[in-house]
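dumping this here before i forget
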Amino acid sequence: MPNFSTPLSGLQAQSAAIDIVGNNLANLNTTGFKASSASFRDLISASLGASGAQVGQGVQTPLSVRKFQQGSIQQTGGAFDAAIGGQGFFVVLDSQGKQLYTRAGDFKVDAAGNLLTQSGDRVQGWTSSGGVLSATGAIGNIVVPSGGTSKPVPTSIFSADLNLNAEGAVGQPNGTFSTAVEVVDSLGAKHVLTLTFTKTASNAWDYKITIPGQEVTGGVAGTPSSVASGSLTFDAQGNLTAPAPPPPATNGVVAVTIPAFTNGAAALSPKWSLFDTSFKPRLTQYSQLRNSSRWPGRCGACANQPRRWRPNRRTVFRWAATSRRSNRARFHPQSRFADFCRRQQFPGERLDF
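structure:
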């Protein structure tokens, strides 16, 4: 009689793997959650008969392996929310005095000003005294003075992790890209800097940093004021080569000079860091991924055929054929977008827009 334990172990292992996937999906919106993957392991084989034939004994219960990868950091609007970029954990103390670790930074404060997690654990760290923070002593409960004020710390350095589209064309819309960075002035007010990148040649981009003109002295309302500009150069692998990376520490940073603010805050001179602490560039230049999707408005004959779509929607199309046989296509004018369908089906072919 056949041994049913081997196929049964496979069913049990797959059931455990489905539980792991289900747990990942259930925690899709859990703050700081790290997904897990199933790691399967086979059972030691047994020898049968004089020939010593090896027969597998099935599969063990898979291990649930936590994947500690960097997640996306999002703006929440919470006054006490925090996030960790890179490795590390927040240290918290539960009600029994046990030290725990978490990546969830959705914090709150109680009536006494203690910084707490959503489950009530106290967040641990160092508290500044007289405006001076010492990180050499023992950690303790972080207390936010209720109704008190603290001296704001103006932005001294900022960074942005970005990828510039290598397929961008000079003088075309896809050759220009902008993003925003928030800075804090000496009075604690927030301002938005706009970083604009414009492609000038192959592997070469210009950048310009601006601030709304009405926010700085000497500026014109409605006209962005430039506070820094320069150029970037990438190599054939998409890595940033100019400005040059550190060391020395003065390399890989861009000086930004912001005049005094109209709200009375002092002039600000933050630095834009182009490289991380391990000297890897924060800016890259790779081609953006293309989407594989269905094109709207096609006829029923090719409704289920996959399309490889490029967003420029050119009016001239061609078949990317893998068959040596001739392709026959006809135009369907009923679609809002130009579309084709095949009179003959050829495996492996895609419509290339």
